[in-house]
Amino acid sequence: MDPCFALTFFLPDRRVDSLHPLGHGNINDTWRVVLADGTRLVLQRLRPEIFADPAAVMANMRLVTEHLGRLPEHGNAFFRLVANPQGLDYLLDASGCCWRLLTHIDHTRTLARLNTTTQAREIGTLLGRFHLLTADLDCRSLADPLPGFHCTPRYLEQFDAVKGAGPPANDDEAWCCDLIEQLRPLAAVLEEAKHRLSQRVIHGDPKAANFLFAVDADRAVGLIDFDTVKPGLLLYDLGDCLRSCCNPLGEAHPVPDDTVFDPELFAALMDGYLGQAGHLLSPADRELLVTSAAVISFELGVRFFTDHLDGDRYFKVSQPGQNLHRALIQLHLNRSIRAQQQTLERLLAALLA
Asked: Where does the Aminoglycoside phosphotransferase domain lie (predicted)?
């Protein structure tokens, strides 16, 4: 379906002034919509091969955004769904794609990577705020739109199924295979400790690019992309946020071997988070917090590498080998986290003291 046609479902009586692609997401397609009166909106198309149950995705999004919208302290940090005149807030087209329209958080920008500890602290603060504001929402009321998402052992099983018996095609593939084999025990750490860890409403994908900053200041003012909102471990979110935001070179730099995990960004992000939601963390959460960043970076590296071996069927690519390159970055990041584990644990202990 053409995006202009999808817009007529939501806005049958409004004139659209412009429609342009927005962002560089690995999964969905997104457009910025500008109406004739200057109102800005965001149109998105979900891929059915990724989100097999779009009704569950939308039900979760509706539940969480409506909950946040009832809280006076939420400000404008979170988007809202835009329904059509009949009250419907999503459209399924003939090919199974789900279309939705969202409010646009104006005067903002996204960061592909962090440059300052101020930015890291702001992101930690906003993620903590999201966890705090949803803490009274019963996570059992949410569906699981992606069963097995962040279950690292499951991704290892997928890797094993795709890898095959043949030798790696090149040195980079061989390096990935060797490191994945070495780190197999890491995959089960969070799952085995699940009964001791805090399970609440989580964002599911709190990477750097999903936080909106003011255009004129290093101030985080919004959190977007609620497709993966679900019941889950707080450490899934913290581990994912840390592995994304504490990589100062970003997730697409040209030399994977140079990837490092920055302890200063880590300390700043956790300082911001703990100031908002530190009381939500159990003793076990605190014990495994640094490890969670290692687990999630390993998990994402396995996912990228598996998709590379499987013909790039899940994550969008613009050139051959891009998912292998992404995998190398995450696995080198994992190596950096593990090399600094004791330093990071000391920094966290000082913040918790």
From this structure: 19-251
